[in-house]
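Risk mitigation, structural track. In case the binding assays with farnesyl diphosphate fail to produce interpretable data, a predicted complex structure has been prepared as a fallback.
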Amino acid sequence: MADITFPHALPRHIAFIMDGNGRWATRAGLPRLKGHAAGMDVLHGLCDECLGLGIPCLTFYAFSTENWSRPWDEVAGIFNLLEVYFQRELKNLMAKGIRVQFIGDHSEESRLSAETRSMMERVEAATKGNTAMTVTVALNYGGREEILRAAQRLVESHTPLTAETLAAALDTCGLPDPDLIIRTGGEQRLSNFLLWQSSYAELYFSPLAWPEFGAAALREALADYAGRQRRFGGLVPDKDKAVAQA
Ligand code: FPP
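Fallback model:
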């Protein structure tokens, strides 16, 4: 198994698609919302593990632009859990030096409630100066919608459209692209998550439901990542040179 203790073998940015909460709850004979609550309980341990390893950026896909199509009580329940979570966790985030930022459409015209928007502003403002780790929460987020909003902004400001200007107009401006995207719950797709930013991300799919994905499962994913050969469309310096010369 690859050694994850070499700093170069660790991702700088891991993005998580936290799938399988509902199925986990149903299997346990619980309402789906209990699955989302259990999904929040694992965040703490994962952040601590990554802090310990020195991984500086984590992104969590908490609510997509498509998730509004779920039953209203589940949608309202998720937002309620999020508000309670950040109210409860703010002290811990400050103590650990974790900066929290939100990506997605958070405009006044969005479907987010005034309470959710004000919670987000409060958490972002309070944690703004923290430098140990940046946790990005994708809320009312869709990759296509993010790219469209960015392109619209560039057109409206008469800025030339280039890969650089577009990347800088995305919600993730300032964050490195994810090196590793982990999706739990057994499905193998991106579901409109970080479409621009994931061009060269390594993908890791776990059969575990998100509430089951703890520090041990994360280490397994990191060991798998450490064994990947990342070429970014190029060649592996020594090995491919030898083959080319042969
Ligand atoms: C997908 O599982 C999960 C969600 C739509 C919501 C996940 C959100 C959280 C756990 C909250 C995260 C909070 C923070 C602070 C980052 P699913 O309901 O689609 O599961 P299923 O596929 O089994 O039905």
